[in-house]
Amino acid sequence: MTTSIELEPTAAAEIAGDRIGVLRAFADDLGRRGEELGLIGPLEPPRLWTRHLLNSAVLAPLLVSGARVADIGTGGGMPGLVLAIVRPDVRFLLIEPMERRCAWLTEQIERLGLENAEVRRGRAEEFHDAFEVDQITARAVTALRKLIPLTAPLLRDGGEMLFLKGASVQEEIEAAAKALRKHRVTDVAVEELGIGQLDETTRVFRAKIVRHG
Ligand SMILES: C[S@@+](CC[C@H](N)C(=O)[O-])C[C@H]1O[C@@H](n2cnc3c(N)ncnc32)[C@H](O)[C@@H]1O
Fold this sequence. Notes:
Blueprint lengths: L10 H6 L3 H14 L14 H10 L10 E5 L7 H7 L4 E6 L2 H14 L4 E5 L11 E7 L4 H8 L3 E11 L3 H7 L1 H6 L2 E9 L8 E8 L4
The site of S-adenosylmethionine has 18 residues, from strand 2.
C-alpha cells in the first residue's frame, strides 16, 4: 500500500516565497522515496509539509544574509537542506555521519542545483575547531545539555545557536544549566515561529556564544 503524501498547505508558498518550486521538487522526492530510504518514518508522508518541510522553513527569517551556517545531523534534509533551498543567500555545511543520508543529501544538492550547500560526513565532534561558523541549526539530534557541548566549538565568538525544539524546551534549558555556563552561552530565548501560518507552531531555542568580554 502506498501512503498518501500531504497536499501542499496554502502557507507553503508564503513561507518559501519564490523558492517554492524548488521546495516542491524536494518534497516530491522525499515523499516518494524517503520512507524506503529510511529518511522518514511510515507515519510521516501524510504530514510531510507541516511537520517537516514548513516546520524547518519557518526558521529562514532568523538566518543572516551572507552567513555561514552549519546544520548538525541533517538526516533527510531537515532543517539544513530545506533552509538551503529557501535561503540561497546563506551558505550551509550539512554535517551528518550516516553514509546513506550523506549520499541522499549530495544527490539532492546536485538535482536541485543548490550552490550554497555542501555535505560533510562525520559527527559534529569530529569538526570541533575546524570551522568558525556564524550560526548553527539542528533538529531532533539530542537534548540541549548534550547538544550545546557538541555544537559550541563549531561557532565563532558571538555566533548563534538556533535549535528546533519540542514542547519540553524549558525543561531542557533547565537541565542544560551547567553546559550553558561552561560554553559561555548567553541571550537565551525561546522563539515561537509560524504563528498564523502553521497549525503546530515551531519552537526555537535561540542563544549566543560570547567567549570574550
Ligand atoms: C533523529 S535524526 C533527525 C534528522 C533531521 N535533523 C530531522 O530532523 O529530520 C538524528 C540525526 O542526527 C545524526 N547525528 C547523531 N549524532 C550526531 C552527531 N554527534 N553529529 C552529527 N550528527 C549526528 C544522525 O545520524 C541522524 O541523521
